[in-house]
């Protein structure tokens, strides 16, 4: 894993601010208006914990594949760059292909959603943390793209680190609903902001693919 991978994971979280607000805004907004900042933090820590668990799983799976196929990390870097481009197209609204990935996780999410809502109604911090953990499994193209970088790490521990970076990148958007004005929220949700962030993701993805192709040529 390189600093590039950590930066990519953090950048994905930051760039998806508008997407996060639209996907999870109702929950975070309700928390920000009705409960303390500490409780909102606990909820988001639960959400990020689930991201880290998912990162550990895909990182470990990638480590097993690496033992069987030594060049698999080069392939994963290419795939990660491709998913970064698709994420950019998704954020801009130019091509919503990642919604197909989100649909794959919908049946699993439907089984979790009632429990998440039940936990959220409680004022106890352990229940709020549990609600955040369950909501972390909400089908989301942004999360799936970040998980591609966790797989690229090639280990469970590094997968946790990258998803932690991604989760930290999403925090400003989630706390914006409780702390920032509606004007700032409107900017984060605006099509212009989403397109600007999406274009950055596209260029970054192209750059990552070029690096992957260059590395592949060196080992061929």
Which keywords apply here?
220 residues; mainly alpha; 11 helices; 0% strand; globular; transmembrane; membrane; Sulfite exporter TauE/SafE family protein; UreH-like_TM_dom
Brief synopsis:
The protein is an all-alpha fold and 220 residues long. Helix content is 87%, strand content 0%.
Average pLDDT rating: 81
Low-confidence stretches: none
Instruction: Give the tally of β-strands.
Output: 0
Name the beta content range.
Answer: under 5%
Question: What is the domain tally?
Answer: 1
User: How would a textbook summarize the main sheet?
Assistant: none
Radius of gyration: 17 Å
Principal-axis shape: globular
Structural class: mainly alpha
List SSEs in N-to-C order. Answer: HHHHHHHHHHH
Total helices: the number is 11
Helical percentage: over 70%
Euclidean distance between termini CA atoms: 21 Å
Structural overview:
- It comes from Pseudidiomarina aestuarii.
- The chain crosses the membrane at residues 48-68, 75-97, 128-147, 159-180, 192-213.
- Residues 8-207 form the Urease accessory protein UreH-like transmembrane domain.
- InterPro entries: UreH-like_TM_dom.
- This protein has eleven helices and no strands.
- With 220 residues, the protein is mainly alpha-helical.
- It has one domain (3-74, 98-191).
- The longest helix has 32 residues, at 37-68.
- It starts with a helix and ends with a helix.
């Amino acid at each position: 894993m390189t600093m590039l991978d950590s930066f990519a994971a953090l950048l994905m979280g930051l760039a998806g601010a508008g997407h996060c607000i639209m996907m999870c805004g109702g929950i975070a907004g309700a928390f920000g208006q009705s409960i303390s900042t500490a409780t909102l933090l606990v909820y988001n820590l639960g959400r990020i914990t689930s991201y880290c668990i998912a990162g550990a799983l895909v990182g470990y799976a990638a480590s097993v594949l690496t033992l069987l196929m030594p060049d698999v990390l080069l392939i994963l870097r290419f795939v990660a760059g491709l998913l970064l481009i698709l994420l950019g197209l998704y954020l801009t609204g130019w091509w919503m292909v990642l919604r197909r990935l989100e649909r794959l996780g919908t049946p699993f999410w439907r089984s979790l959603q009632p429990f998440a809502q039940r936990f959220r109604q409680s004022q106890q911090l352990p229940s709020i943390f549990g609600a955040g953990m369950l909501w972390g499994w909400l089908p989301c193209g942004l999360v799936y793209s970040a998980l591609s970088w966790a797989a690229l790490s090639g280990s469970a521990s590094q997968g946790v680190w990258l998803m932690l970076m991604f989760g930290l990148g999403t925090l400003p958007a989630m706390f914006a609903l409780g702390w920032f004005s509606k004007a700032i929220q409107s900017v984060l949700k605006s099509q212009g902001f989403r397109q600007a962030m999406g274009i950055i993701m596209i260029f970054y993805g192209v750059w990552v693919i070029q690096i992957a192709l260059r590395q592949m040529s060196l080992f061929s």
